[in-house]
């Protein structure tokens, strides 16, 4: 029995996995080439210093190494030569739980008691889940805000060009204006705005860290990215000295910058993921089976409706909501391709038509409730789950061309 051709979801998944593996290999090669010589040189200098110290002060190397191991254990417990702020007073503990639930995890403070470690497991389970939900809700609201602002700019541009009546006001009359029907903000414009905001926020935060912590500006930018992206290496950690000038104000500013930075970078990452998905769809389109006309015809007929490619928006045409419902489900098409069970049936997340998606974001931009009746099988997951579903429902480039 001949196997069914690879469907688009699996093809995109395998292509992304291959690209990630290649990306990881390339990154490992670059970092190894950049950092390995420095590491070897530092190790050589340290061995030379260790032997010189042992010879000058007449201390055996085993005793000296034992002392250094004790010092490393003290560093792991939070002991430093210079005076540092208390790690487990209330401000320090609050800083710690913030890094836990946001998954930053600097590692400069860790619980050492058994009770503390057990409580961290339970605390982090619900805290991380709640914070991820908060990030998704923040993403939804920032996209709605950007849609509202970009809608106003679009209307102003139409007025200047004479395509919109000067006395036009937002309301039910909007449906009669052809230039605004189905308008949705571009994912690339949203990407640009979020990118500018993230860069501005990082530059301002870096200026503060350079002035207060004494880091150079490049280190401050590096710290901002590592922290805002929740990587959290812990080689640089802010607000760790025993005292600062205007300490209360600095701690408040540090909290605000980290909070806003994490939310902004999370939103930016999700927008970038949409662009990556578009590139994957474009690559799959280029590499689809061309040697077999039958497979090529089948893949064209059964292509996923939310699979868009660069330039797809130019091929869009108006389709009524009534007639579109007849072709909204791809379950039958999947069954014809040989699949026993389709992911569409498992999630019941049938693709929403372009006209309905346009209406949803248009209403969002104008503050109207999105009461849309969709004649499909739906359950709690029918609109999708998570940040990707938010982007799919609210940005123009995530809708499929017909």
Automatic annotation (TrEMBL):
Q: Which Pfam families match?
A: Ion_trans_2
Q: Which GO terms describe its cellular component?
A: monoatomic ion channel complex; plasma membrane
The record ties this protein, via SUPFAM superfamilies, to: Voltage-gated potassium channels
Q: Which InterPro entries match?
A: 2pore_dom_K_chnl (IPR003280), 2pore_dom_K_chnl_THIK (IPR005410), K_chnl_dom (IPR013099)
Q: Recall the GO molecular function terms of this protein's record.
A: metal ion binding; outward rectifier potassium channel activity; potassium ion leak channel activity
Keywords in alphabetical order: Cell membrane, Ion channel, Ion transport, Membrane, Metal-binding, Potassium, Potassium channel, Potassium transport, Transmembrane, Transmembrane helix, Transport, Voltage-gated channel
- How is this protein positioned relative to the membrane? Multi-pass membrane protein
Single GO biological process annotation from the record: stabilization of membrane potential
Name the record gives this protein: KCNKC protein
- According to its UniProt entry, this protein's organism is Pachyramphus minor
């Amino acid at each position: 029995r001949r196997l069914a051709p690879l469907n688009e979801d699996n093809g995109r998944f395998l292509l992304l996995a291959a690209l990630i593996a290649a990306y990881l290999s390339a990154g490992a090669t670059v970092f190894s080439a950049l950092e390995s010589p420095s590491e070897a040189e530092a190790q050589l200098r340290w061995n030379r210093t260790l032997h010189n110290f042992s010879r000058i002060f007449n201390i055996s190397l085993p005793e000296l190494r034992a002392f250094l191991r004790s010092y490393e254990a003290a560093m792991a417990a939070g002991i430093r030569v210079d005076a540092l702020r208390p790690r487990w007073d209330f401000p320090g503990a609050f800083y710690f739980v913030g890094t836990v639930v946001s998954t930053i995890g600097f590692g400069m403070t860790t619980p050492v008691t058994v009770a503390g470690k057990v409580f961290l497991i339970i605390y982090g389970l619900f805290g991380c889940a709640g914070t991820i939900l908060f990030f998704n809700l923040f993403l939804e609201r920032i996209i709605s805000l950007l849609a509202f602002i970009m809608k106003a700019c679009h209307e102003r541009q139409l007025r200047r060009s004479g395509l919109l009546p000067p006395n036009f006001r937002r309301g039910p009359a909007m449906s009669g204006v052809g230039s605004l029907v189905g308008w949705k903000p571009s994912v690339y414009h949203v990407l640009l705005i979020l990118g500018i905001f993230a860069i501005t926020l990082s530059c301002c935060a870096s200026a503060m860290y350079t002035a207060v912590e004494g880091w150079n500006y490049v280190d401050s930018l590096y710290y901002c990215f590592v922290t805002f992206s929740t990587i959290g290496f812990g080689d640089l950690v802010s607000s760790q000295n025993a005292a600062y000038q205007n300490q209360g104000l600095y701690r408040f500013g540090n909290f605000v910058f980290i909070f806003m930075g994490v939310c902004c970078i999370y939103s930016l990452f999700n927008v970038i993921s949409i662009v990556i998905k578009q590139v994957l769809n474009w690559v799959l389109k280029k590499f689809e089976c061309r040697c077999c006309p039958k497979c090529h015809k089948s893949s064209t007929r059964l292509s996923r409706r939310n699979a868009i490619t660069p330039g797809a928006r130019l091929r869009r045409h108006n389709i009524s909501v009534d007639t579109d419902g007849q072709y909204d489900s791809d379950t039958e098409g999947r069954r014809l391709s040989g699949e026993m069970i389709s992911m569409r049936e498992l999630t019941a997340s049938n693709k929403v038509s372009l006209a309905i998606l346009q209406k949803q974001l248009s209403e969002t931009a104008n503050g109207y409730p999105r009461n849309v009746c969709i004649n499909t099988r739906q359950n709690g997951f029918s609109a999708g789950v998570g940040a990707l579903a938010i982007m799919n429902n609210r940005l123009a480039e995530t809708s499929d061309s017909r």
